[in-house]
Amino acid sequence: MARTYEEIEDDLIKTSSGSAPFRRMVREILGMRRDSAILVTTVVVTAIAGTLYPLALGYAVNAILGHNIRLMEYFAGSFFLLYVIQFFSNRVRTIKSTKLAQTEIKSLRDRAFTNLQYVPEDFYSKVKTGYLISRITNDAETLSEFLTFQLPSVISGISTVVVSISIMFYKDFDLTLYALIIIPVLMAFTISIQPRVRDNYLRTRKTIAAITGNLAENIAAIRTIKAFNVEEKVQDKYRGLNQENFTANMRASKLSSSYGAIIRLLEAAGIIIVILAGALQLIHGRTTVGLLVAFIVYVQEFFDPVIQLSQLYNSYQSSLVGIARIYGIIDHPAEENVGDTNEKLVFRDSIEITGLSFSYGQGDALSKIDLKIRKGEKIAIVGHTGAGKTTLSNLLLKFYHPVVGEIRIDGRDLADIPTRSYRKLMTPVLQDPFLFRGTVLENILFVEPSATREQVESLIERFGLSGIFASLPDGVDTNVGEMGRNLSEGQRQAVSILRAFVRDPEILILDEPTSQIDPYSEKLIIEALRNFLREKTLILITHRFSMIVLAEKIVVLQNGNIIEEGTFNELVKKNGVFSGMYRIQYGDT
Amino acid sequence: MAILSRISAGAKKVLGIFYPFKFSLPYLKGRYGIVAVVIIAGIVSSVSRLLIPVFIGEAVTKIENLSYSGVLSVGLLIIAASAVTAVFQFIVSYGSLYVSQKFEYNLRNDAFWHLLRKNYSFYEGQTSGDLLSRNTMDVHAVRNFLNNLFSQMLPTIFLIVFALYFLFSINPYFALIFLVAVPLLILTGAIFQKKQRTRWRRIRTYYGLMNERLQENIVGNRVVRGFSAEDLEIQRFSQTTGSYYDEYMEVAKLRGFYNNIMPLIVSAAATGVLIYGGYSDIISSAAVGPLVAAVNIFSLMSSPVSSFGRLIVFSENARAGIERISTLLETSMEEDVDNKNSVNLSGSITIRDVSFHKGGKKILKGINLEIRPGEFTAITGRTGSGKTTLVSMIPRFYDPDEGDILIGTKDVRKIPLAALRRHVSLVPQEINLLSGTIRENISFHREGISLADVRRAARIAEIDDFVMSLPDGYDTQVGERGITLSGGQKQRVALARTIAGLPGVIILDDATSSVDPETELRIFNNIRQEIRSATILLVTHRPSALKYADSVWKLENGEIFPVIDVSVDLQGITDGIRMNFYEVDHGKDI
Ligand SMILES: Nc1ncnc2c1ncn2[C@@H]1O[C@H](COP(=O)(O)OP(=O)(O)OP(=O)(O)O)[C@@H](O)[C@H]1O
Ligand SMILES: Nc1ncnc2c1ncn2[C@@H]1O[C@H](COP(=O)(O)OP(=O)(O)OP(=O)(O)O)[C@@H](O)[C@H]1O
Ligand SMILES: [Mg+2]
Ligand SMILES: [Mg+2]
Question: Is the pTM higher than 0.80?
Answer without folding.
Answer: yes
